[in-house]
Amino acid sequence: MGIFLMLTSYETYRIKNVENIKNTTNHTNVENIKNTTNHTNVENGNHVDIVNVNTVKKYEEVKYLEFDLVYNQYVKKHNSIVFSKLLGSSAKPNISELPKVVVVQSDLTKGYGNRIPPLVCGFIYSLLSDRLFFIDGYDNFSSYYEKDFEHNWKIVENMYKNSSSRHLHKRNVYNDFQLVATGNLSNDKTDILYVATWDYACAPITSNPHYKEWFNKLIPDSRVFTAISLKLIRLHPNISKQVEIFADNNFKDYNIGIHLREKKTTNRLITPIDHFSEVVKMLILGMKNTNITIFVSADSNNGRKKLVNLLDEIIIYNNNSINIVHTDDNMDAPNPFNSNTGTEIGALIDMKLLSLCDDLVITYGSTFGYTAAGWSSKVSHRRGPYVVMPIKNSSDDFWTSDKVWVYGATSNEPCMYLSKWVLDKADKAISRTFKSNPLWMHYSQCHWPI
Q: Is the peptide bond before 204 cis (omega within 30 degrees of 0)?
């Protein structure tokens, strides 16, 4: 049988910047604010029609119908309170009349993959404690995502300047795992609960005895991040359309997504680029006459090129039609706002394309790949991505017999980087409750230390 090859290793897809996106949420004018809640009809806060627009429906499966109902009910309540009680009245509400809130303090100086998990955590806390959800510091949120309800903290912040507040999470300084893992959030009488984290630090809430039944009913497969992110974090239509066009033009019968984080340093170890291609070899073993696409996302142009060259070598000896593709976001372009390379639009397009792949091969310790894995309802993502482990910068490491080169994760839930702290240093009751979570091993093994 002849070998049929479709070599498009250097095929790229240009990412268009989103321009002329009107009605951002940087102003406190109520009429402007109403216009920013995309696909939401707000009439004096009394009635809201939610239209779930998803331009990548073809690649996703809506499965969390009970949670979707809860989400839609929350959106109606939130907009009604914000536009009638907080913004719609000429009289300023008394402090005692203000609704209690959860405020996620976004840190846009960190990686793109670190931005979504805190939003999901904050929204979980708001639902469980019957609080309103707001985001502080992500003023251009509506330039990248759809927006069903007004959650820009700046529009109401002044009303809460004399309110009581405290942090549920404050980076690595303070995390109230006592409340998250075992307590009842409704008993906390603080007006403002701040969530400031780069982590999926809310994972223990799913095993909290007060909320286990709630999660089991609404999200029975324990893919909590997936269920919430698919509703709360939906790409802006201008960006989502680019994802859909790229996927339609390039994705085939079986799609492998690779996220290479070459610049990720973990305890002075390096990321072995050739190991990513080795995993791909294993994934396509036994496949015949299959149309395969390998989508490559990387944090540098050079790393992406090296990986594509290695994947090209696989094609020569394979009896399948293999298409190697990537977007052409310039990963060497300096970012004036943080240490991330490339653009936020480019990162989001890559992340969403990765989420649409059937299997993922990602970099150990990088949140980007895990966030992509969770941001999808594909059935194949139940088992989680394949994680390539780092090695010493020495050829000697290749001869280490007990080395873990790659492992297959048991879930597509994001990492919880603080999970080892919960297991080792938290109160025994907290760690014991956390270990009642069926995914506790997954949360605690997907990052440093090795």
A: no
